Amino acid sequence: MKNYFEINNVTFAASNKNKVENVSLKIENEGDVVCLLGPSGIGKTTILRTIAGLEKIKSGNIILNGKTISSGTIHIEPENRNISLSFQDNSLFPHYNIIDNIKFGAERNKRKTKKIHLDYVVEFLHLENIKFKYPHQISSGEGQRASLARSLLSMPNLLLLDEPLSNIDQNFKEEIQVKLKQILREYKITTIIVTHDSYEAFYLGNKCGIILDSQLKQYDDPYNLHHFPNSIEIVNFLNKGTLIPATVIDEKSLENKDLGLIEGDFIKHYPKGSKVKLLLQPEDLEHDDKSNLKLDVVDRKFRGTNFIYTLKTQSDLLIQVFVHSHHIHQHDINEKFGIKKPIHIDHIVCFD
């Protein structure tokens, strides 16, 4: 089966320091969304600029819908790619008001039979009150939303979004995420999104890629990235778990001196007696007031649907545990917190 989009062995470089080497990734289906995560200055924007045709490549190839658009010998000009790139900075035309800026996107898709209605995009991006203002009269978040509207209306073969929601107020950021996901799915707009927000990436992306140390370290669906990170680097970057020392007991268990026996299925085989670092995520442990395994509460965060307790073990390890917010007994800092035993983790992820 032919993939809709492919990058094959391409090095993306804006400079010697800002580059991502030997990248290969595939988008299988038209309408899929891929999110790229990584620290600032790592080269994520350079990837988007190169896909759009603003930068050339020396080797490898980039293929869109069966056609090579970039290689060592081929370079399709940006205006002939039908790719829309929305930068983090809004890049609106300063001498046009907002609605006329947005209409530029609609002009690009005149030949398309399926079109997104202008008023629908203006409404869901909350642009009604600034339609007749000019770019210098609006906030950075409003400008970012206007740029996103223009890009959506162009109905490109590939949509590239660089931190599209970074300047948008939190009070309706999630609403826009929901509507954006709906519209991308409904109109089958294949999209690559650069973001620093892992929650946003995991919500919007069919697949996500994490870029660290000039390399695409892992490219997978969000569930696997969270539950099956392939390296300690990924664990540290996502910051969604703690690595604790443990000793492998047998094929189904290991032991930590503070938590005791931990059972489950190993993702990778380790010989008996191996010293490993076990990935412990907040959802892996269960609270039990009656348990004799008690840890000290050092912090508590309220997240609406749940609390996240940070606990300290006798060895001064800090681990986090989710507890449903309706749990009848809340624990204060310096109180004791019980962990249900025996500890069972469905999939045990360890590193040497």
Brief description of this entry?
This protein has 352 residues and is α+β, with helices and mostly antiparallel strands. It contains eight helices and 20 strands. Helix 2 (98-108) packs parallel to helix 4 (140-153).
How is this structure best described in words?
The chain is α+β, with helices and mostly antiparallel strands. The protein is 22% helix and 33% strand. β7 (158-162), α5 (170-186) and β8 (191-194) form a beta-alpha-beta unit. It is globular, with a radius of gyration of 24 Å. The relative contact order is 0.12.
Produce the secondary structure layout.
Layout: E1 5-13, E2 19-27, E3 33-37, H1 44-52, E4 61-64, E5 67-71, E6 83-86, H2 98-108, H3 118-124, H4 140-153, E7 158-162, H5 170-186, E8 191-194, H6 198-204, E9 207-212, E10 215-220, H7 222-227, H8 232-238, E11 242-250, E12 253-256, E13 260-266, E14 275-280, E15 294-302, E16 306-312, E17 318-324, E18 336-338, E19 343-348, E20 350-351
Parallel strand pairs: 3-8, 3-9, 6-7, 7-8, 13-19
Antiparallel strand pairs: 1-2, 1-4, 4-5, 9-10, 11-12, 11-14, 12-13, 14-20, 15-16, 15-18, 16-17
Helix pairs in contact: 2-4
